[in-house]
Amino acid sequence: MHGYTSEKSSHLKRLRRIEGQVRGLQRMVEEDKYCIDILTQVSAATKALQSFSLELLDEHLSHCVVQAAQKGGAEAEEKVREASDAIARLVRS
Predict the structure, then answer these.
(1) pLDDT value, residue 33
(2) Do residues 60 and 86 make contact, with C-beta atoms less than 8 angstroms apart?
(3) Which CATH architecture has domain 4-92?
(4) Residue ranges per domain, the chain?
(5) What single DSSP character describes residue 39?
(6) pLDDT digits over 39-82, tens only?
(7) How confident is the model at residue 20 (pLDDT cuts 50, 70, 90)?
(8) What DSSP letter does each residue of 3-34 carry, written as one string?
(9) Taking the alpha carbons of 77, 83, 87, 88 in that order, is the dihedral positive or negative?
(10) Which compartments does it reside in (predicted)?
(11) How far is it, in rounded angstroms, from Cα 24 to Cα 70?
(12) From the centroid of its chain, how far is CA 60?
């Protein structure tokens, strides 16, 4: 079981909302909307993805990493390294 499993339906709902935002961006470009209006919507979609990713990361840390840390050994080291790499990717994006 993954850390996000208990919130899966909520996550899927959020991702569908974000998908709608991205489709809206496509529509705006197709309809030749004003650049600043499109950029405003890009910012909103970006923030929504960032918020989702932080929540997913929190769930990963509190579930997957904690469980691995309790077991110790190589698995714990691997989960901590994965989390660290994921955080680095999020910071760079």
Answers:
(1) 98
(2) yes
(3) Up-down Bundle (1.20)
(4) 4-92
(5) H
(6) 999 999 999 999 999 999 999 999 999 999 999 999 999 999 99
(7) very high
(8) TTGGGHHHHHHHHHHHHHHHHHHHHHHHTT--
(9) positive
(10) Cytoplasm
(11) 45
(12) 11
Amino acid found at 43: S
Within 8 A by CB and 6+ apart from 87, the residues are 57
Report the greatest alpha carbon distance in the chain: 56
Q: Do residues 21 and 44 make contact, with C-beta atoms less than 8 angstroms apart?
A: yes
Measured over the CA atoms of residue 38, residue 44, residue 48 and residue 53, the dihedral's sign is positive
Cα 33 to Cα 40: distance, rounded to the nearest angstrom: 12
Helix (H, G, I), strand (E, B) or coil at 37: helix
* C-beta neighbour count of 68 within 10 angstroms: 19
pTM, 2 dp: 0.82
Please tell me the distance from the alpha carbon of residue 25 to that of residue 23, in angstroms, as a whole number. 5
Q: What is the pLDDT of residue 44?
A: 97
